[in-house]
Amino acid sequence: MAEKLREGLLLGMGNPLLDISATVDQEFLKKYDLKANNAILAEDKHKPLYDELIELYNADFIAGGSVQNTMRVAQWFLEKPKIATYMGCVGKDKYSKILEERAVANGLNVRYQYTDKAPTGTCAVLITGKERSLCANLAAANCFTTSHIKVPENEELIKAAEYYYISGFFLTVNPEVIQIVAKHACENNKMFMMNLSAPFICEYFKEPLLDAHPYVDILFGNETELDAFAKANDFKTTDRKEIVLKIANMEKINKERKRIVVITQGSGPVLLAKDDIVTEFPVVKIPEEKVIDTNGAGDAFVGGFLAQLIQGRDIETCVKCGIWAATQIVQTSGCTYEGKPDFKP
């Protein structure tokens, strides 16, 4: 069925980052005031850690950035190039060349904006046991300007898409672009989707998140982000089933379809809020020794989900494919994959 899909059907926007991934110990996290299983933006005190990872910890370089990962995984399932388009800002340097080569090899139609104001963004992926701590130095990713989506070719790509996916992380970069894309999707009854991305987005970027939220048809996130959203918006409950229903029923501008909320919970069941009903989907338990790296599991989940969604499959199949994709990705280092996916809808 995927071979019938046209190019440019799915459009993703986010922060392209080169992941610098290494296994470290608790002392390293403590040295840089970082927590396991968390995601933050780098401050000045974190800047030396990137060189330290490269010089002392035998770090791997992996094409990353949350949405770029998701688009790459979606393309893996679709097995036909350029169904997904990806936009984000990079520097004019060797890192952006590595990123573009890897993304294009994975079938993405890459439409980077290039800036000479900053180097390509990097993300330290600090692995301790089965957990990971992400520390992103956005650098060039911060420089994405609204002018990029007004370049005629890019404007056409935005108009051509029918499904849009943007990370909450992008709210720290250019909320105006999110509004433009969200309004276009709403006015043309297209599908607009976002991800909560990290607890700090719910806490410190609450206003732009709430500005975008009325346009969101499908919202993704994990359990810690869900808890942070409930707390930031004073939901007065810690019951996650109640929270996903409340989020699903918040104001929505396009009344053609109800909002769907999809929340992953690590090895716990995936929560799906749809039509005022919460459904739990058990995840596949894989042996502890096979889990190599949980970084990218959430991105892979959304990639698998979107690959089925744009083929017109039902939401339950989308969730099951998301779970399947995440299960594969945690058995590799970073958001990487091998061979052809053999998910059976």
Features:
345 residues; alpha/beta; five-stranded mixed beta sheet; 12 helices; 14 strands
Order of H and E elements? EEHEHEHEHEEEHEHEHHEHHEEEHH
Helix content: 25-40%
- The overall strand count is 14
Give the averaged pLDDT, no decimals: 92
Cα shape:
globular
Report the structural category: alpha/beta
- With strands numbered from the N-terminus, the spatial order across the biggest sheet is 6-5-1-9-10-11-12-13-14
* Count of helical regions: 12
Which residues form runs of ≥5 with pLDDT under 50? none
Report on this model:
The protein is α/β, with parallel strands linked by helices and 345 residues long. The protein has 12 helices and 14 strands. The strands form 2 sheets. A 9-stranded mixed β-sheet has the order 6-5-1-9-10-11-12-13-14, sandwiched between helices. Strand 9, helix 6 and strand 10 form a beta-alpha-beta unit. Helix 11 (297-309) runs antiparallel to helix 12. The termini are close together.
Write the layout of secondary structure elements.
Elements: E1 10-13, E2 17-23, H1 26-31, E3 38-41, H2 48-56, E4 60-64, H3 66-78, E5 84-91, H4 94-105, E6 109-115, E7 121-128, E8 131-137, H5 152-160, E9 163-167, H6 175-187, E10 191-195, H7 199-204, H8 206-212, E11 218-222, H9 223-232, H10 240-248, E12 260-265, E13 268-274, E14 277-281, H11 297-309, H12 315-329
Parallel strand pairs: 1-5, 1-9, 2-7, 3-8, 5-6, 9-10, 10-11, 11-12
Antiparallel strand pairs: 2-4, 7-8, 12-13, 13-14
Helix pairs in contact: 3-11, 11-12
